[in-house]
Amino acid sequence: MKLTVDYGQDPHTQKWFCPQQQAWGLLAQQKITPSLAEKLCFTAAASTSYEQAAVVAARWGVAVDDSLIHQQVQLAGERADQQAQARIRAPAAPPPKPAVAPGALVLMMDGWMLRHRGGDWGRQPAAAAGERVAWQECKSAVIYRLAQAAQTGNGRGLLVEKFVVAYVGEPLEYGRRVQPEARRRGLGSVPRVYVVADGGVWIWNLVADRFAQATGVLDFYHASQHLWAVAHLLHPEVEALARAWVEPLLHQLRHGGEADVLQTLQDLPAWCAQRAQPLPPTVTKEINYFENHRAHLHYEMRAAEGCPVGSGAMESLCGQLQGRFKRCGQFWTEPGRRRLMALEVARRNHDWDEVWQLEHIK
User: Fold this and answer.
1) N or C: at which end does the chain have fewer Cβ atoms within 10 angstroms?
2) Reported confidence tier of residue 362, pLDDT bands at 50, 70, 90
3) Domain span holding position 136
């Protein structure tokens, strides 16, 4: 289709422009419509790579190369990132009064590593020393209402609706992003907030800073790994003895006997002394670890309230994000990763349409 449209000079600004181009939301030199750009960007976010997005686009009738898709993602991703920044800076609005009493809010946090191009990326010759690859942590979060937790017909858990945060940077800046997103999803209007996470020190420091009133839960699988570590330190050569020591403790920990488990750990120095067995230094570290998480070990109580005692939803999100951002051969520039990730988060958080509102494109 070929269209003939007006093009002329604005008598007030003396700038040359095309009124129809502006009405359609097209930028200068733009080759494709916003509608097509939106479809290409969505395909890029939901695909495994820009190359794969081009293959999918060709299947639904648009033959474009991956460089054009990449270009559109940079434009739209910058808008999405700026909109996310604006939401962070906006003053917190009072939560609306719900029509029905809201349920609890669940917040899970974790981090995963992805590859960026280091300062010596592309340095030649290949044998020359240098930092070609820079590994950085993407701090992520899953936020959902407890009422949105459900099960499939075969008993597998699922979340009907969830919202996410993904940020590469320092914990302080990550916290500035998680808290406003939690407010958008009910923080401040729900009677209870649960935080479920592994033992990362930065996570629990952030919880104390941003979510001090929340009920913390140490991921049970993570706690069990630490108990197994103690068992192998006490019985390094006989697996059966390690298992016999740890399995009763795991049962106690999960079923309301956390105080007994903590006491057993506190008694380990005397237990070793009675057997003329040196206390492995790492055991003391593990004892302190559990003592620091004493308030986060009430698994039976939390489960009775409906709260998850494991962070499976968080692990699932990390796996999904790695499936897009940590594939073989992917080494990101900071702007390229940031923009695509902003689109991916907008897609998951139902903010996608805002990115494509005409006034924002202009």
Assistant:
1) N
2) low
3) 105-219+310-331
Which residue bears the tokens 């105080």? 259
Res. 33 pLDDT band, cuts 50 70 90? confident
Q: Within a domain: residue 65?
A: yes
Q: What is the pLDDT of residues 46-91, one digit of tens each?
A: 999 999 999 999 998 899 999 999 999 999 999 999 999 999 988 7
Q: Residues 55, 74: one domain?
A: yes
Say which residues have a Cβ less than 8 Å from residue 18's Cβ, sequence separation at least 6: 5, 6, 7
DSSP 170: -
* Of residues 90 and 205, more confidently modeled: 205
Domain termination site, one of 296, 319, 348: 296
Using a CB cutoff of 8 Å and minimum separation of 24, what contacts does 285-292 make? Answer: 286/226, 286/229, 286/230, 286/233, 289/199, 289/226, 290/223, 290/226, 290/261, 290/262, 290/265, 291/262, 291/265, 291/266
My answer on whether omega of the bond before 281 falls inside 30° of 0, hence cis, is no
Work out the percent of the chain whose per-residue pLDDT is above 70. Answer: 94
CA distance 119 to 21: 41
229 within some domain: yes
Q: Which residues contact 309 (CB under 8 A, 6 or more apart)?
A: 196, 217, 219, 220, 254, 299, 302, 303
Residue 340 resides in a domain: no
The rounded radius of gyration (Å) of the Cα atoms in the chain is: 26
CA distance 73 to 41: 6
9's tokens: 């000079």
What pTM, to 2 d.p., does this model score?
0.89
C-alpha dist (Å) from residue 104 to 116, 149, 154, 216: 37, 11, 25, 13
Q: Which residues contact 216 (CB under 8 A, 6 or more apart)?
A: 194, 195, 197, 204, 207, 293, 295, 296
Indicate whether 136 belongs to any domain. Answer: yes
Cα 67 to Cα 1: distance, rounded to the nearest angstrom: 24
Same domain, 184 and 325: yes
Place of tokens 């269209």: 3
